[in-house]
């Protein structure tokens, strides 16, 4: 089943076409990385898909239905989460409270609705948040206040918050940016583990090719807003168009 599909998706900023008629499909269960030189349009494409940006033209469908016109939070309720956003963490709440809020918000879209919630559904939320905290390795820290977590654990919490919404698809834009090699390694292991455990579909933007080749079922290469190649890591690595796009950038 196709989870995400873009058709002729385009974003212009004044005279600049940042995303240029992109046709892309992501199947359920696929781990896809989006790569390309700096300024290729990767973040813009992610922001179009998550509805942080309005397309100039073209369409985005999720689970077969157009999401253009929806608000970002509606897209989250449809099952699309973006992770590694510090903004989603409530620093004064505990790890567990943060995960619980994310689980409830994704289910109902707002907190006030929960007053009408049937009591019996709370144990399910409790179980879900505990499972998520175990998946990201934070169960032992569940009572810890979020802002006293160390850097690595904060990133785990950000991923946990996204997973607590039980997304069908997870988007990540440079999750390892600013991390030490050790933190990067543990984040990559974490993403791989949750992908296997939860059969998670993801779209990852990452500049570290070692990570990309290690983690992806398929790679989509953007250059100047256009898809110039797509395939398995091996296919993309051997594609002359990709080598040219990257070497061209280095030699300039
Ligand atoms: N809000 C914006 N307004 C104007 N230009 C933008 C805006 N966002 C991105 N751009 C431009 O669009 C192009 C693609 O940017 P971006 O999507 O951030 O690339 P990437 O994430 O691949 O590095 C760049 O030339 C960038 O300067
Ligand atoms: Mg970017």
Short structural description:
The protein has nine helices and ten strands. The protein has 252 residues and is an alpha/beta fold. It folds into two domains: 1-79 and 168-252, Rossmann fold, CATH 3.40.50.300; 85-166, no CATH class.
Can you characterise this structure?
The protein has helices spanning 42-49, 72-78, 95-108, 122-135, 151-164, 181-198, 209-215, 233-237, 240-251; strands spanning 2-13, 16-27, 31-35, 57-62, 65-66, 80-83, 169-173, 201-205, 218-223, 226-231. The protein folds into 2 domains: 1-79 and 168-252, 3-Layer(aba) Sandwich (Rossmann fold); 85-166, no CATH class. The N and C termini lie far apart (42 Å). The strands form 2 sheets. Strands 6-7-8-3-9-10 form a 6-stranded mixed sheet, sandwiched between helices. It has a 4-stranded antiparallel sheet with strand order 2-1-4-5, covered by helices on one side. It is an alpha/beta fold and 252 residues long. The protein is globular, with a radius of gyration of 19 Å. Residues 13, 16, 18, 36, 38-44 line the site of adenosine-5'-diphosphate. Residues 42-43 line the site of magnesium ion.
């Amino acid at each position: 089943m196709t989870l995400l599909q873009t058709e002729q998706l385009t974003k212009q900023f004044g005279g600049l076409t940042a995303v240029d008629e992109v046709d892309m499909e992501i199947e359920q269960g696929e781990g896809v990385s989006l790569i390309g030189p700096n300024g290729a349009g990767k973040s813009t494409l992610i922001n179009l898909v998550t509805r942080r940006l309005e397309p100039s033209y073209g369409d985005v469908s999720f689970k077969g239905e157009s999401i253009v016109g929806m608000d970002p939070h509606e897209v989250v309720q449809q099952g699309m989460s973006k992770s590694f956003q510090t903004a989603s963490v409530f620093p004064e709440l505990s790890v567990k409270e943060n995960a619980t809020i994310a689980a409830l918000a994704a289910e109902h879209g707002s907190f006030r609705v929960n007053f009408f919630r049937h009591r019996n559904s709370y144990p399910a939320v409790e179980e879900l948040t505990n499972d998520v905290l175990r998946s990201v390795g934070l169960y032992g820290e569940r009572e810890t206040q979020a802002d006293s977590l160390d850097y690595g654990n904060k990133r785990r919490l950000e991923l946990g918050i996204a997973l607590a919404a039980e997304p069908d698809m997870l988007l990540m834009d440079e999750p390892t940016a600013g991390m030490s090699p050790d933190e990067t390694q543990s984040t990559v292991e974490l993403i791989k583990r949750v992908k296997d455990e939860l059969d998670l579909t993801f779209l990852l933007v990452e500049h570290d090719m070692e990570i990309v080749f290690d983690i992806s079922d398929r790679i989509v290469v953007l250059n100047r807003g256009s898809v110039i190649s797509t395939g398995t890591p091996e296919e993309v690595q051997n594609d002359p168009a990709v080598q040219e796009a990257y070497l061209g950038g280095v030699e300039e």
